[in-house]
Specification:
Number of strands: 0
Low-confidence stretches: 1-13, 411-422
Oligomer: single chain
Distance between the termini: 33 Å
CATH superfamily: MFS general substrate transporter like domains
């Protein structure tokens, strides 16, 4: 080897230099979209007290948000394939800001459901992980794909570290409406980022590989995906992922409030989740390029469920809460590069956002159950005991099935370095 030869990792990163602007814009869109969404639970205690609605009312809005997001995500993916990513992401960013302005002016349940629910849900379908990670996949070579997806997901995790402390500080000092207005201002920053990320529309699709859906119609692509067993299992397990995560982001602030802990601890916990999201996304993006993505997903669901049970079985303390948030953060958005990479490998790039949206619909049905079901069980029982037990049980079951799929050998052909055949 020449003394001046570059290591493969350095060469791979240099090959990405022409698309760094697209990746940066994509990361900013994802970071703000997810960070704002994950931090809305901070406003549940002051909003419910301030405008006279119940916890169930607020969680209904969050449940509607997840339902709308899930229903529209496959459509947004199909529109992106036809219209381009830029128009969809710009529209989503503008709608996000409008939704938060409506929520800041809310005087009753209707505005909360429309703003935090319907409008934010529709905006996320155009700015969330399905579209943004599809943009990242489009502009990088396959050899760098898993690592880059992890990097974008990691950058996308930073939003909560900014949004949560900012929203909590303004809410505590000036009232919750000022906190929501600050969120609306952050949402406007997605507009220039979406414009830059939209340069991916000019990148041509690679030649269709064997087994891809690139030459199929949208309906044919969906049918092909639903006939592939690993995709179906991954999508069903994704339901539990959404249920657990949205239960935490929506109900952890109220749980800590009930336990008499400092309200700022909620913001610190969400910020901790965002910080460890970065590490987890980078790790699972790297690991997904080396080992079986289905196996990694299954292990992630099992460990996440064990950590969830351990936290809620004991009395919460500030230290335990931050440790819990750190571990959950590490296991949080690492799912995204694994699912995105699996879809790209199984079905190609043309319909990736749409097919990923089909899987994400299942995730959002779980998110609906985590937000709404958690609120109903809390209002019914006066505690979260049954809610977290259901989440843990289903998480362990989903993880076990996902691992069985990996061990069985269903999925992609094996590559060197994999733990088991994929």
């Amino acid at each position: 080897m020449s003394a001046h030869a570059n290591p493969p990792a350095v060469s791979g990163l240099r090959s990405l230099q022409p698309v760094w602007a697209v990746l940066l814009g994509t990361s900013v869109v994802l970071s703000l979209a997810m960070g704002l969404r994950q931090s809305l639970g901070l406003f549940m205690p002051p909003i419910t007290r301030g405008i006279g609605i119940t916890v169930t009312d607020f969680t209904t809005a969050i449940a509607v948000q997840n339902l709308v997001w899930g229903l529209l995500q496959p459509l947004a993916g199909a529109w992106a394939a036809r219209l381009g990513y830029r128009p969809l992401m710009l529209a989503g960013a503008a709608l996000y800001a409008a939704a938060l302005l409506l929520l800041a002016s809310a005087q009753g349940l209707l505005a909360v459901v429309l703003g935090a629910g319907v409008m934010v849900g529709a905006a996320l379908a155009c700015t969330g992980s399905a579209l943004t990670l599809s943009v990242a996949t489009r502009v990088v070579p396959p050899a760098s794909r898993s690592l880059v997806l992890g990097m974008v997901s990691a950058a996308g995790s930073l939003g909560a570290m900014i949004a949560a402390p900012l929203g909590q500080s303004l809410s505590a000092g000036f009232g919750w409406r000022w906190g929501v207005l600050a969120f609306a201002a952050l949402a406007l920053l997605m507009l220039p980022a979406a414009w830059v990320a939209g340069r991916a529309d000019a990148v041509p699709l690679p030649a269709a590989a064997a087994g891809s859906t690139d030459n199929a119609s949208a309906l044919q692509a969906v049918r092909q995906a639903l006939r592939k067993r690993p995709f179906v299992v991954m999508s069903l397990a994704y339901f539990v992922c959404g249920m657990q995560l949205v239960f935490i982001t929506t109900h952890l602030p109220t749980y800590l409030d009930i336990c008499g802990l400092d309200p700022m601890l909620s913001a610190q916990a969400l910020g901790m989740i965002g910080g460890f999201n970065v590490l987890g996304s980078l790790f699972f993006g790297w690991a997904g390029g080396r080992w079986n993505k289905q196996l990694l997903l299954g292990c992630m669901y099992v460990v996440r469920s064990i950590v969830l049970a351990a936290y809620f079985m004991a009395l919460p303390t500030p230290t335990a809460t931050l440790v819990f948030a750190g571990i959950m953060g590490f296991l949080w958005m690492g799912v995204a590069p694994l699912v995105s990479g699996s879809v790209a490998e199984m079905f190609g790039l043309r319909w990736q956002a749409m097919i990923q949206g089909v899987a994400f619909f299942s995730h959002q049905m779980g998110s609906f159950a985590g937000a709404f079901g958690g609120g109903v069980l809390y209002d019914w029982l006066g505690n979260y005991g049954l809610a977290w037990r259901v989440g843990v049980g289903l998480g362990l079951a989903a993880g076990a099935v996902q691992i069985m799929v990996a061990v069985s050998g269903w999925g992609q052909p094996p590559r060197s370095g994999q733990l088991v055949p994929a």
